[in-house]
Fold this protein.
Amino acid sequence: LAVLSVSGAAFAQSTATISGSISVGVMDTGLAGAKAGVASLGGGANAINIVTAEDLGGGMRAGFDSQMRFSSATGDRNSSGTGAALFHGANAYISGGMGTIRVGKIIEANNCAFDPWACTGGAGTNAGAPGTISGLIAAGTTAQSVSYATPTVGGFNASYHTSVSSRNNERSVMSLNYAQGPLSAQFLQSKNSGNTGGDVVGGAPSITDAPAQGTSMGARYNFGFATLAAFNAKTENAAGAVTADITAFTAIVPMGAYTLLASSAKNKKAAATADTKTAVGINYALSKRTTVGADMFKQDAVGSSTGFVARVRHNF
């Protein structure tokens, strides 16, 4: 009985959680030659998360944090890596009053909070449909890396994430954040090319090792009747030339079970035939876990094409 009692106490201090989501729909990008088809909407929106946590005492915890991504259109794995990637992120962490340290393959910070579609693709301002402009910065995954995130003090927190490898240009992502009351803001900067690539069956992806930079600054305010946001995202190539300069304004308007979504974005560095994107959409919450929705978006590209999405998302 004594042994069972001790074992029970030990197990009570450790937890393992499985969660995830699936986001899928029928999309037509509106681009020349395109037609409607079933599409996987978003990277992290189609994922299974496995997280463990152990109470170390004194306010400290440790564990394993992982994510496996998949295509909701085909069921195939869709994690980035250095070969046949199983996990999009897989790292050990220790957290306490001084913050959180992670070591392993770590998912990067991102600026998806300013996108009404939360980077799920299609109509989204960030990580949108192929052929449309996107202000997404970082949001990848970094193999062979370490990160540190500060605790939140007075609404402020920060994180720094870098690869530690044989690369000439180590990948790094820094995020400075503020969130208190109705206001949230972020400064996000990534440096150098990612050190993972798309999943390749039976081989290794082409992974570049070159200087580059991406910077995003954004703010969001919840007025109660609507949440309005604005952000600017810039990318620079190895020569330091600006390759994209995107400014976007977005809105989320809750109306009971319905939520209206809208965004307008312009890329100053793109040609006049491909420099803007506007989108509107609507969500309907069937429950706390399941949402259906529809969107329309228009981009200045190949005849000012107009696309649409009909979609469903389920969280578990």
Observations:
- Residues 139 and 280 are 23 Å apart (CA to CA).
